[in-house]
Amino acid sequence: MPSAPEPLDTSRESIQLAMSRELLAHAKDVLSVPRQPAHVLRYTCARLTESLDDVLSVADERGQRLTAGEPKSRGPALYWGNPAHDDCGHTGREAGPV
Q1: What is the pLDDT of residue 3?
Q2: C-alpha–C-alpha distance, residues 39 and 15, integer Å
Q3: Is the pLDDT reported for residue 92 higher than 60?
Q4: HSE (CB half, 13 Å, CA atoms) of 25?
Q5: What's the pTM?
Q6: At 16, is the secondary structure helix, strand, or coil?
Q7: How does DSSP classify residue 36?
Q8: Do residues 26 and 64 lie in contact, with contact meaning Cβ atoms separated by under 8 Å?
Q9: 28 to each of 3, 20, 25, 57, 63, how far by Cα in Å?
Q10: How far apart are CA 91 and CA 7, in angstroms?
Q11: CA separation for the pair 90, 82 (Å, rounded)
Q12: How many Cβ atoms sit within 10 Å of the Cβ of residue 42?
């Protein structure tokens, strides 16, 4: 039986991440050549900036999907500063004033 098509967002995310991987490989190639012209470095830096923006958007969207519908009391914040749940015995006061 054929599998169901991926939702549009997942497909878009997959494309963005694949393009980011390709760009990273290209950037590594560019940096492996000493004394690249400034315009090549600027172009590569601009594309890396765009790629990082895309990757951060994907991470944010995935984080929102993971937390959608979860009760507000779930997650690491429940345990921070609670010695009963801290394996290291920290009280949470070490991090500074609350």
Answers
A1: 58
A2: 27
A3: no
A4: 6
A5: 0.56
A6: helix
A7: -
A8: no
A9: 36, 12, 5, 23, 29
A10: 44
A11: 8
A12: 11
| Cα separation, 76 vs 93, whole angstroms | 16
- Look at the block and give the residue holding tokens 């594309």: 47
Give CA–CA dist 87/71, Å, rounded. Answer: 24
Instruction: Count CB neighbours of 2 within 10 A.
Output: 4
CA nearest to 48, candidates 31, 64, 63: 31
Is residue 76 packed enough to be buried (19+ CB in 10 Å), middle (13-18) or exposed (0-12)? exposed
pLDDT at 52 over 60: yes
**Apex CA 90: angle with CA 88 and CA 92, to 5°?**
145
How far apart, in Å, are the Cα atoms of 18 and each of 67, 75, 77? 25, 30, 33
Q: Is 2 helix (H, G, I), strand (E, B) or coil?
A: coil
